[in-house]
Structures are given as C-alpha cells and as structure tokens.
Amino acid sequence: MDCLNEVEGQAVEGMKETAQTVCCPLCGREGKVMDKGKKLYNVLVCKKCYYGFANRRQGAFLIDFFLWGIMLMVGGVLYATLGSFLMGWVKSFDVVPAEVVEGVWIAVSVVSMVGAHFAFGFKDGFHGYSLGKRIAGVQVIDEETGRPIGFWQSFKRHLRLQFYTLLCCFLIWCSWLGVIGLYLVVGGFLCRGYRVGDKWARTKVIWKEYENKHVFVDNTLCGKCGYDLRVTSRDECPECGEKISERKRKVIDEVYGGQFV
Known about the structure:
InterPro entries: RDD. This is RDD family protein. It holds the Pfam family RDD. Keywords: Membrane, Transmembrane, Transmembrane helix. The structure is a single chain. By secondary structure, the protein is mainly alpha-helical. The chain has 2 domains: about 55-210, no CATH class; about 220-260, no CATH class. The chain is built from 7 helices and 6 strands, in the order E-E-E-E-H-H-H-E-H-H-H-E-H. The strands form 3 sheets. The protein has a two-stranded antiparallel ribbon with strand order 1-2. It has a two-stranded antiparallel sheet with strand order 3-4. Strands 5-6 form a two-stranded antiparallel ribbon. It is elongated.
C-alpha cells in the first residue's frame, strides 16, 4: 500500500486540504528525507527518487543519441561512397551537365540529413521503449489508456523538440554539441515528469520498477495545476480547465468508487 503523500493548495469549497507526508510513495523511505522532497507528476517524492528518475531518462537519451550517432556515421560513409560512384557513373555519359548532377546530389544529401534527424523521433515506438530506455528501466505510455506507445505517438512526442533542435543546428552552424546541450537543458525539466511534447502526444514516462505506484498510475491530481480531481465528477479540471484523461477518470472512479472527497 502506498504511503500517505502531501497534497496541498487544492481548494475544496473555499478551503485548503493538506495531508501530512509519512513517507516517499516510491521507495518508501520515511522521516526527514521528505522534508526536502520535490514533486514528480505533482506528487511529493524524496529527492533521491526525484533525481534518480530524471537521471535515468537523461541516461537513456544519451545512450540512444550515441548509438544513433554511430549509425549515422556508418550510413554516412556508405552514402558518400555510393553517391560518389553514382555521380561519376552519371557524369561519364556526358548527358547531364556536371553542375546539375552535383546540385541534385547536394539536395538529396540535405533531405537525407533532415530525414535522418526526424527519424530519431520513432525510437520510442518499440512498445514504449528505445534501447536506452530499456537499459535505463523507463518506458513511455499513453496517458489515457496506460498502454505502451507506438511509432506514431513516439514521433509526435519528439516532433516539437526535434524542430527546436533542428532550428538550433542551423543557428549554430550544425553543431551537434548544441543539440546535445539543448536536450540536456530540456532534461533539467524532466525531474517534474512531463517534458516538451508529452502533453501534445498525451504521453508520460514511467519508472518500470515503480510502475504500479500511485505516482505513475492512480495520480488523482491535475497534471497542470495540481488540483485534487477527486472533488469533481466533471471531465475537466474545475480549477484550470485541463481535460481529464479517460484513464485518469476511470482510475478515480474505480479506485475511489465514485466517492468524492
């Protein structure tokens, strides 16, 4: 059974409801460790779990990025070798001007680079895992159904962040250090749970070791403002208007039996 966790700042008919923290709802540690706790998906957890979860997500990304970089380097060598051979072969017929052949080659190369950049966004489509996430023990799920995401949802989840990194690449003249830097800056917000793209794709990352804990499953708090959704039967948060997902509504109704506090 999960520990009692702090829920504060939620108005119930003009009054504030506050419960005293007993222990971390993830690792179960008690006492003073919770005095400096932080909120993950709007639920108070100890600092060890808070940063541990973020570190796993950042580590998963770095593994994926490193492996993807190796694949791109190998693919780039093969592409350059094959491309040089084909250009020489086409030029040997002396039918198409050399400038046109080279122009087509440059255009195809640019399109291929952009395509490879966005293809990275499909990495979490393997039942909610990439290789890095599998190693790190985290998984991406659909927030409404609780099921692991597929390739389309993975692409959608990464699209906005990839657009920002692509823009960053052009601004700093295609420096991959800039891309890594941007991802790491975004990684600083991973501690809270959601990151850029999660809300749009309706996804969330869970820690597999604690996948059945309250933080990841039956979180009754609004993901935007932290309002306790057990006090309402509406399909949207009465505090901020955020839509309540079908999964969360179902969990609240099933776990709490439709009894609103």
